[in-house]
Amino acid sequence: MKPITIVGGGLAGLTLGIALRREGVPVTLHEAGQYPRHRVCGEFLSGRGVEILRQLGVYEAALAAGAREAKTLKFFSGDTGTQIVDMPEPALCISRYRLDALLADAFIGRGGVLQTGSRYSGGYAEGVIQATGRQVQTEVAGWRWIGIKAHALNVALEADLEMHFGENAYVGLCRVEGKRVNVCGLFRTKEAIPDLKKEWDKWLLGACGVALTKKCPNIIFDKDSLCVVAGLPVKSFQNSDTGVFSVGDAVTMIPPVTGNGMSLAIESAWKAVGVIQGYASGQISWKPAQELARQGYARSYDRRLRWAAWLQRGVFSPLVRGLLVRSRPVWPPLLRFGFGVTRN
Ligand SMILES: Cc1cc2nc3c(=O)[nH]c(=O)nc-3n(C[C@H](O)[C@H](O)[C@H](O)COP(=O)(O)OP(=O)(O)OC[C@H]3O[C@@H](n4cnc5c(N)ncnc54)[C@H](O)[C@@H]3O)c2cc1C
């Protein structure tokens, strides 16, 4: 077997690493950071990625580590909420602090070589896979996109996942390990925000028409879990041929409102396993393997990404948001439709 190098130890890189090790492929993975560590993420994992975690043996380990299954959902536009509805299928809510560390342990357990604190700066030659996450995009159509997340205590939730929408923001809340609730928001602004470092909690609870301040009067944030990212590429990148074999957000990023980015990252890695194993065992050369993986992504993601882009546009439209929270009878089938088109 020829050796494989993976650059980036997020969900995509680690999933790929574990799956390749199961096939006996020698793998070295470079991760710039350390485990465990907090990341900006809604920490709501839904879609086919859940089943892949089961097959990797990580799902049960996640539950044992305190992950929650989310079964119900409620949407809010300002103060007005929908009814609580059942999700078409349960999702897994687990901190990235825990999940990435579980995957890293599983990778090492399978005999993978994990080099943390190792920022790779070599080229993407034959046998090297890029799993470095999203590309930075400072502005999209005049908007700057910012993600903020922190864990909190003393938050009473009405549903397992609550999504609070405002004019230029939405904030998702879900229970993760222990009594913690992950509070994660995506904000768009045309101005730079000079006070974000000091005022991040105000942004999470009450910016842009998100109405969480009244709902969470006793909230206590864990400041050590705070993460902020800017330059989010909320407009999906096209799956163009860059000449680099990529997986996860490095290929394309689905708008976060779908709660499907983690799954897409895991799925893209899973899909690539067969061709990379074929390359490692000498059945196929590198370029055709890369092209097969790219065509596979295009077939299974293009439609999902198009629907996701519409969904993202919809939630930032006051008209669509107003209709959504008032359309009680059609809300459950609408939700099933939204889940279906972004996940299948
Ligand atoms: C605000 C927000 C909320 C979100 N909420 C959700 C949600 O609720 N549900 C969901 O499913 N998805 C959500 N997502 C999306 C999800 O977080 C991503 O899709 C997912 O993390 C992608 O995984 P990845 O492995 O491709 O990249 P990442 O998880 O970003 O991992 C990339 C890794 O590569 C490493 N790296 C980068 N460059 C180098 C280098 N040169 N050398 C070595 N290492 C390197 C980084 O340190 C990092 O660990 C959200 C995203 C945002 C921005």
By DSSP (H or I, 4+ residues per run), the number of helices equals 9
Give the bound compounds. flavin-adenine dinucleotide
CATH topology of the domain at 4-37 and 97-134 and 237-343: FAD/NAD(P)-binding domain
Head-to-tail CA distance between termini:
33 Å
Average pLDDT, all residues: 91
Q: How much β-strand is present in the residues? A: 15-25%
CATH first level of the domain at 4-37 and 97-134 and 237-343: Alpha Beta
- Helix/strand-derived category reads alpha/beta
Compute the CA-based radius of gyration.
20 Å
- Report the major sheet: 9 strands, mixed
Q: What is the name of the CATH superfamily of the domain at 4-37 and 97-134 and 237-343?
A: FAD/NAD(P)-binding domain
Q: Count of DSSP E strands? A: 14
In percent, how helical is the residue content? 25-40%
What can be said about this structure in brief?
By secondary structure, the chain is α/β, with parallel strands linked by helices.
Could you outline the blueprint of secondary structure elements for this entry?
Layout: E1 4-7, H1 11-22, E2 27-31, E3 44-45, H2 48-55, H3 58-64, E4 68-77, E5 80-81, E6 85-93, H4 96-109, E7 113-116, E8 128-130, E9 144-153, E10 161-166, E11 169-175, E12 181-189, H5 196-206, E13 220-230, E14 245-246, H6 261-280, H7 286-315, H8 318-326, H9 331-343
This protein binds flavin-adenine dinucleotide.
Flavin-adenine dinucleotide (FAD) is lined by residues 7-13, 30-33, 40-45, 119-120, 131-133, 147, 184, 186, 232, 248-250, 253, 256, 259-263, 265.
